[in-house]
Amino acid sequence: MKLRILILFCVIAFASISIARVDNWDMELVGREPFGPAYAVHVADGYAYLCAGGSLVILDVTVPSEATQVGWVNTHGIAHGIHISDGYAYVTDGESGGLWIIDVSDPGDPRIVGHCDTPDAAYGVYVSDGYAYIADRSNGLRVIDISDPRTPEEVGFLDIRGAKAVRVVGDYAYVIGRDGLWVVDVSDPSNPKKVTSACRTDQSSGGICISGNYVYIADGKSGLRIVDISSPEDARQVALHRTSGDAMAVHVSGDYAYVVCNWSNPVGLQVIDVSNPENPKKIGSHNTLGVRDWYMRCIFSVCASGDYVYIADSQAGLHIMDVSKPKSPRDVGFHNIFGYARGVHVSGDRAYIANTSGSLRVIDMSDPQNPELLGSIDIRGELWEVYVSGNYAYVTDKKMGLRIIDVSDPKELEEVGFLTIPDAKGIHVAGKYAYVGSAEGLQIIDVSNPRKPEEEELCETPRGVLGVYVSGRYAYVSNGQEGLRIIDISDPRRPKELGLYDSPRYVYEVYAVGDYAYIADGMNGFRVIDVSSPWNPKEAGFCNAPGTSVHGSDNYAYVAGIHNDLQVIDISNPEAPRKVALYYAPSDVKDVYVSDGYAYVTDRSNGLSIVKYSEWAVQSRNKQVTTWGRVKQDLLLQNYPNPFNPETWIPFQLSQGAEVDMRIYDSAGRLIRILDLGFREQGCYTSQGDSARWNGRNKSGEEVASGAYFCTIRAGEYTATRKMMLIK
After folding, report:
1. DSSP string, 169-232
2. pLDDT digit string (tens) for 155-206?
3. What is the average pLDDT value for the chain, to the nearest integer?
4. Higher-confidence residue: 700 or 8?
């Protein structure tokens, strides 16, 4: 598994613009269960509308202490911004750009009715007088005519670098960009014009709210900025209030500004008295997260309605607070929206997903094209991996240890057992024992009575254990920088280390079958280890497939890659493993589990994806070819890394030989660079050595600016274009 703290507070992924369009190599996206981290919330008419991963979730908050989910809809990308107006939800796609328009007149049955693409990852959105105004990052302010929500059409554009948030009052739009707050004349929406730059802002600013004659800006490290817009042409900053922590979002109601902050201790809500906007004063605060997690959590959105404040917490869900007494806000409700999907295990026709927010989900996979949530349980904590055996799910909690859940009835999940284990991560259950990777080594737990787990023995290792896989009488342990360790567990009460394979890099996870162990070695690729002699494990094969998680089935290993991808490796010849397929996930892939021909993939922002290797590729698995098998179609694939700085690689495949060149254009359509690749034979060109490389420079050798660029391939009669993001 990938070992890092999730501190990134914006997500830009590089998958296709909709589920229906899957530009992957010989992999088919079958289904998706898209719940993920909460990025934005809007409250209207007794309902809270929450952007959660790849979905819009609707909660009945008529009784705030009893928030209940009533509906949801798949938004295909990463739902990032939202505005509710006249029975419609306008949701921006923070993954690949665009605006989704959703009919929410019946909150229990929301339906997508319209879509309008935008060039970049769309963040903020505001609706006014028949137009949707979108902050489209490097591609500025986009104005969409939504007079007919079923056929939205872009009618206006204004170049504002790094546009992240927008609000509209009357004839003016107020846009937060990289250079600060811009006042924009939108009296003619088809021709928006800059009026003035009201103030500079912090690079991490993004939240904005307008109340009366003032704009309130959640300005990151700087705090809360207040700008007088009584005369828009002469807008000016009148106050700066320093918050404890980074101000990420703000909502003003009456005399109070409700500001949510990250990277502070405590993290959460700060109440600012703005009855005199030129002299704001903090009067109250509340920790929404708990001291132990303050450095990990990210809050992106806040909305006040009546006596309540609703906070979107990326890793936890929706917090609801009573602010009827502003000096002492208090929690009254919480709804877990599952946060980041981490571990996955499949047993029978059910998939079990462990989330970093502390929830375990049970998904019915009897129809992989239509996964259905059967039940969930919120046990709080930082869940890592899950393994199901019989009627119990054994879950590792990085903060607390081993958690055991009775899953005999998915609708009535119950935690029945617990054991404290430091930094618990990997887990495998075999017989009456659970083998758990911890900070101290491999811990062997007797779970013959799941309600009373008992520590049987500890096999110490030099560093913490990340992953565990049990096969026969051996436990294969991924030990990070210390390599792969093989432990004899024929007598679980007396485990004994037999052999060590010293990896060149960092062993994240291991899968073993027969005489071979397969390891995900981080940036150093995929390695096949001959363990026929456990005392002397030796490398037998290697494939350049960087990754952090691995699982297998039959003649294939599936590797969760470091470029938001799932790579399929043909291991029919362990001495010559080779890539045969690739699937791009919406965001950072965390885990993979293979069962009955399907790969179940968790990614950070979009929940669970179910994919399968295409039929023709499976049929050709025994063919000895120098490329990835018979290529049936020309494809330009997504560049990696993306976003990038300063260089990126652009993979492609050809169904027949052709002269190939790549043309790089900026967002204005100007030709920046031509990459002449010469004649290429039929095949797949995916590695850094084979694919096209762009170093972020123009034809004169000068570095280009940050922003969106477009790569167009020309190969014979084939042409296609991909969007790339350069961020410095």
Report:
1. ETTEEEEEETTEEEEEE-SSTTS-EEEEEEE---TT--EEEEETTEEEEE-BTT-EEEEE-SSG
2. 999 999 889 999 999 999 999 998 899 999 999 999 999 999 999 888 666 7
3. 86
4. 700
Return the sign of the alpha-carbon dihedral for residues 624, 540, 387, 505.
negative
Range of 666's domain? 635-726
Give the global pTM.
Answer: 0.69
Residue 671 DSSP SS3: strand
Are the C-beta atoms of residues 473 and 488 closer than 8 Å to each other? yes
∠ CA(493), CA(495), CA(498), 5° rounding?
Answer: 165
Instruction: Show which of 305, 336, 367 is a domain's final residue.
Output: 336
8 A C-beta contact, residue 526 and residue 538: no
- Please tell me the predicted confidence (pLDDT) of residue 27: 65
Same domain, 507 and 444: yes
Cβ partners under 8 Å of residue 162, min gap 6: 137, 138, 177, 178, 179
Nearest residue to 595 (alpha-carbon basis) of 344, 293, 413, 289? 344
Predicted confidence at residue 523, as pLDDT, reads: 85
300 and 382: one domain? Answer: no
Tell me the per-residue pLDDT of 590-612, one tens digit each, with 9 for 90 and over.
Answer: 899 998 888 898 887 667 888 88
Q: Are residues 332 and 359 in the same domain?
A: no
Tell me: cis bond preceding 192? Omega within 30 of 0 counts.
Answer: no
Spatial CB neighbours of 693, under 8 Å, sequence gap ≥ 6? 647, 648, 649, 650, 675
CB-count exposure of residue 293 (10 Å: 0-12, 13-18, 19+): middle
Measured CA angle at 608 (ends 602, 609), to 5 deg: 100
**Encoded tokens for 659:** 């002269």
Contact 509/478 with Cβ under 8 angstroms? yes
pLDDT value for 3: 33
What CATH number should be reported for the domain holding residue 189? 2.130.10.10
At 141, the pLDDT band (50, 70, 90 cuts) reads very high
| 57 burial level (CB within 10 Å; 0-12, 13-18, 19+) | buried
Residue 636 has pLDDT above 80, yes or no: yes
Rounded Cα–Cα distance for residues 94 and 326 (Å): 33
Cα 71 to Cα 57: distance, rounded to the nearest angstrom: 6
Q: If you count them, how many residues does the chain have?
A: 728
Tell me the average pLDDT across 94-100: 80
Tokens 């006596």, located at residue = 307
Using DSSP's 3-state secondary structure scheme, residue 233 falls into: helix
Give, for 617, the enclosing helix (H) or strand (E). helix 615-619
Name the nearest CA neighbour of 336 among 384, 292, 381.
381
Query: Residue 328 phi/psi, 5° resolution?
Result: -140, 70
Rg over CA atoms, the chain: 26
- Confidence at 668, pLDDT banded by 50, 70, 90: confident
Q: What is the DSSP letter of 615?
A: H
**CATH number for the domain that contains residue 648:** 2.60.40.4070
98's tokens: 């665009």
Residues 207 and 171 occupy one common structural domain? yes
Collapsing DSSP states into helix, strand and coil, what is residue 26?
Answer: coil
Check pLDDT > 50 for residue 628. Answer: no
How would you class 448 by CB atoms within 10 Å of its CB: exposed for 0-12, middle for 13-18, buried for 19 or more? Answer: exposed
Residues 285 and 387 in one domain: no
Spatial separation of the C-alpha atoms in residues 401 and 413, rounded to whole Å: 19
Beta bridge partners of 484: 478, 501
Residue 279 DSSP SS3: coil
In terms of Cβ atoms closer than 10 Å to its own Cβ (0-12, 13-18, 19+), residue 408 is exposed
Q: How many domains does the chain have?
A: 3
Mean pLDDT of 516-529: 93
- The proportion of the chain whose per-residue pLDDT surpasses 70, expressed as a percent, equals 88
- Quick check: 241 pLDDT over 70? yes
